[in-house]
Amino acid sequence: MDLVIGIGNRLRGDDGIGPALVESLEERTGVERHVVHQLTPDLMPRFGEAARVLFVDASIDGSELRLDRLSPSPARGLGHALTPAAFLDLAAKLYDLSTPAWLLSVPGSEFEVGERLSSQANDRLPEARRRIEAWLEAESIPAAT
Q1: How many Å is the maximal CA-CA distance in the chain?
Q2: What pLDDT digit, counting tens, does each position of 71-124 carry?
Q3: Alpha carbon separation from 131 to 43, 138, 142 (Å, rounded)
Q4: What pTM value is reported for the model?
Q5: Residue 140: what pLDDT?
Q6: Cα 67 to the chain's mean position, in Å?
Q7: How far apart are CA 87 and CA 78, in angstroms?
């Protein structure tokens, strides 16, 4: 099973990019979707059952979509400090899990309180959705793009 996790807060403008994208995906066999405000250890059992994982999150840096293969990186704490790379590190330490994982970073520009995505974020959604679909369609574990 592939696991796709949309990370973000829909009440903080473009921070809701990850949830919006993951919720827009059609259901398909062999793919489990989750939407979370932040990564927490309670996701680790599902993570451990997955063949591979794709995290989808807004980025405050950069202007281009990025799909990167992740490596574990030590956590500075739980909650917002638990990045996808830190999540991998914690999963390895707590449960001896080493599921291959990627992060699709979608640039955002407006993170103020509000439920709407910016026009720039909305313009990026189709390409981000195509990247997710390509990742899901890949028969082998895709390289970073």
Answers
A1: 42
A2: 999 877 665 668 999 999 999 988 898 999 999 999 999 999 999 999 999 999
A3: 23, 11, 11
A4: 0.91
A5: 54
A6: 10
A7: 9
Count CA atoms within 13 Å of residue 9 on its CB side: 10
Query: Which of these, 59, 7, 58, lies nearest to 37 by C-alpha position?
Result: 7
Is the CATH number 3.10.310.10 carried by domain 2-137?
no
Residues of the chain by 3-state class (helix, strand, coil), percent to 5: 40, 25, 40
Distance CA 89, CA 78 (A): 12
Query: Mean pLDDT in the chain?
Result: 91
Residue 56 scores a pLDDT above 80: yes
CA atoms in the 13 A half-sphere facing the CB of 86 = 14
Domain locations in the chain as residue ranges: 2-137
